[in-house]
Amino acid sequence: MTKQKRVLVAGAGGFIGSHLARRLAAEGNWVRGADLKSPEFSPTACHDFVVGDLRDQAVAARVVEGIDEVYQLAADMGGAGYIFTGEHDAAVLHNSATINLNILEAGRLAGVKKFFYSSSACIYPERNQLDPNNPICSEESAYPAAPDSEYGWEKLFSERLYFAYARNYGIEVHVARFHNIFGPEGTWRGGREKAPAAICRKVAEAADGSEMEIWGDGEQTRTFLYVDECVEGVRRLMESDFAGPVNIGSEEMVTINGLAAMAMEIAGKKLAKKHIPGPQGVRGRTSDNRLILEKLGWQPTQTLRAGMEKTYAWIAEQVRQA
């Protein structure tokens, strides 16, 4: 009989982490979660959940004890309203770097042999994302490095940290660069929400025939990946012999105006778009999926519309209950 695998999901109180923990538990693993808070919208699937601060070395040492594999998703992060104002730069750099330094070193000392690290598309150089119709986000384009945010710089540093531990200590690491993951049970208000959630909330709250606000001209492009596809990609990467870094994202590019129009159509509402000043990030970004297809024989296939329909339904219900 095979021994039950014991896994840690750091950041299991967050959006992607809670979905990943649910998947890992369903697969028969024993799952410990660790985060500053429990999941906000549904009970955790973890068998053990430690509410604690992973910036504290003692907490990091406690949560990796007896663990076979670590999935490290814990970070100080949010949407454009949090990352691009500049007001949180020091906290983002300090908090996320400290978490990664602590988890890796504590895990190494505890004998953990396998780590997953969630990096971000924010590591890609701003110069390659100025044309909204032709952004360059292939994995090898990361260097020479020039991310457009301190969040991106920290993610790039931490990628290097994980690969240095792999080289120096013989630890197996797998690194993915997430591209705008969205879906139900994600942050949908308060300033840290991502664009799909913010747009769904604005549409759900607005009366038909009124208006909704959009930051900038709305012509900036992005791709958005439904959370179940993200989790599938993470699991396939962890079970492969490919270390990465690799993009996990969609190639279905849309403007923010187009995303708003899609949400209105799903809701059956017609709203005027009011463009206002606000943080926008790069002009264009898409996932380049050539490498993941080559290495894993897989890439995400779900349409943006299918994911937005599920996400809008969930957020509209939250708005009704608020």
Keywords:
322 residues, alpha/beta, UDP-galactose 4-epimerase, domain 1, two-stranded parallel sheet, 39% helix, 13 strands, 10 helices
Topology, pairings included?
Blueprint (H helix, E strand, L loop, with lengths): L5 E5 L4 H12 L3 E6 L12 E4 L5 H7 L5 E4 L7 H4 L5 H22 L3 E7 L29 H20 L2 E7 L2 E2 L12 H11 L5 E5 L5 E2 L2 E2 H12 L7 E3 L5 E2 H12 L4 E5 L13 H7 L7 H18 L1
Parallel strand pairs: 1-2, 1-4, 2-3, 4-5, 5-6, 6-11, 7-10, 8-13
Antiparallel strand pairs: 9-12
Structural summary, described in words:
With 322 residues, this protein is an alpha/beta fold. It folds into 2 domains: 6-181 and 225-248, NAD(P)-binding Rossmann-like Domain (Rossmann fold), CATH 3.40.50; 185-222 and 252-286 and 303-321, UDP-galactose 4-epimerase, domain 1, CATH 3.90.25.10. Helix content is 39%, strand content 17%. It contains 10 helices and 13 strands. The strands form 4 sheets. A 7-stranded parallel beta sheet has the order 3-2-1-4-5-6-11, sandwiched between helices. Helix 1 links the parallel strand 1 (6-10) and strand 2 (30-35). The chain is globular and about 60 Å long. The N and C termini lie far apart (49 Å). The model has no long low-confidence stretch (mean pLDDT 94).
Poorly predicted runs are none
Give the C-level CATH assignment of the largest domain. Answer: Alpha Beta
Count of domains: 2
Outline the biggest β-sheet. 7 strands, parallel
Give the overall shape.
globular
State the end-to-end distance. Answer: 49 Å
CATH topology of the largest domain: Rossmann fold
